[in-house]
TrEMBL record:
GO MF annotation terms: DNA-binding transcription factor activity; transcription cis-regulatory region binding
Keyword presence, Nucleotide-binding: no
Keywords: DNA-binding, Transcription, Transcription regulation
DNA-binding region of this protein: 36-55
Boundaries of every HTH tetR-type domain copy: 13-73
InterPro entries found in the cross-reference section: Homeodomain-like_sf (IPR009057), HTH-type_TetR-like_transc_reg (IPR050109), HTH_TetR (IPR001647), Tet_transcr_reg_TetR-rel_C_sf (IPR036271), TetR_C (IPR011075)
Domain of life where this protein originates: Bacteria
Tagged with keyword Nucleotidyltransferase: no
Name by which UniProt lists this protein: TetR family transcriptional regulator
Amino acid sequence: MQPSQRRDQAVPADIRARVMPAALDELARWGVERFSIEALAERHHLDRETIYRYWGDRQRLIVDAALADAESFSTTADTGSLRGDLLAMARSAAARINTEEGRTFLRALVMERPGIHDEATRMMLWQARFAVVRDVIDRARQRGDLREGVNTLAAVQLVLAPLNIRALYSDTPIDDRYCEAIADMAWHALARK
């Protein structure tokens, strides 16, 4: 294991293109607790030192991989309405969850056993993912679409939590009617009337 070190240099695109899918594969296969840069490097024929050079430690690599995954399916489309944006967010999340990789990755993030380091990693991971989708709520607030006192994190969770729970407990694909129902309930809870 390499010591944790902060690296702020940009990761070359070719290295990132090889490491990100490998990291997501390892997370899906082993979860956060058993994620190891050494195992990732060996299984995917990558240079361990290169990974440490650009990411510094497993925590930064896990968070970066999860953020790359979130950005790959997130929507920042501005439909012009809170209801439309919530539906777009639900559909985007469902599209990712409905893939084998998306569902497997989501399930790998569930905490198997408590651990201080891994709990901190998960918090960093969810904060990074939250930053990707919070634009929907921020835009609605700027347009005056939200009722007073709406907590941004709770608002995002109104849409994403039911989708994530369904993915954790079922292999049934999430259909558009379910996305519409979730977005409609969230809209009723959040909208200025």
